[in-house]
């Protein structure tokens, strides 16, 4: 019935449908299958993720193949992520499943995000907790929700990996380094996951990390940190001398000013 309705709107008569059933049958089967879509990964059609489209022009009935609507939506959704350093499976989850009742920190993060989404605040989020406490997952689900709302682009980066990557790039690929540094400094949403762990030298701290954080603060761009450390612990872990303590204090002060 759905196929007949569509064909009738094109101006195709019942008699023409019967005469062109060999051309139309794939279209009918596609509609019947897609009405009960099993999901992109379980699409088991003869031509997975493709749909038959019937055209009618100058009395001629023809068919073309087009990507399915859900696949196009998924492509647009994934385009919201410039960088995505978290499990692809998490893209199918959602923030609505997290009510925050099982964690004070989680509840606070969700409320801060809701305020950001509703335009009431542009404050940052600093999530800290032990390993496997779920802080990365919370940050990821906030980003999934942002991507669904098309409020990106988003850079969700593993700090220890990506900051070291930028450092190496600054010597070998200066143009690419500047492009990536500007991207992290200017994208609408940035997540610095596992912040405080990994390799930090003076250049990473002053030439990369301070630049990104200070620029994002000036531009009031939404930023999320996940870390194994609270602010005091973070300073102890990162700073090894009086000079580095002063430098890291400046970075942490910017984060606290925006996140608290």
Could you explain how this protein is built, in words?
Helices cover 53% and strands 16% of the residues. Helix 7 crosses helix 9. The chain starts with a helix and ends with a helix. The protein is built from 11 helices and 7 strands. The strands form 2 sheets. The chain has a 5-stranded parallel β-sheet with strand order 3-5-6-7-4, sandwiched between helices. Strands 1-2 form a two-stranded antiparallel sheet. The protein has 260 residues and is an alpha/beta fold. The mean pLDDT is 90.
Helix/strand layout:
Blueprint: H1 2-9, H2 14-19, H3 21-34, E1 50-57, E2 60-67, H4 69-78, E3 81-84, H5 104-117, E4 125-128, H6 135-148, E5 154-158, H7 159-172, H8 174-186, E6 189-195, H9 202-219, E7 222-227, H10 231-238, H11 242-259
Parallel strand pairs: 3-5, 4-7, 5-6, 6-7
Antiparallel strand pairs: 1-2
Helix pairs in contact: 5-6, 7-8, 7-9, 8-9, 9-11, 10-11
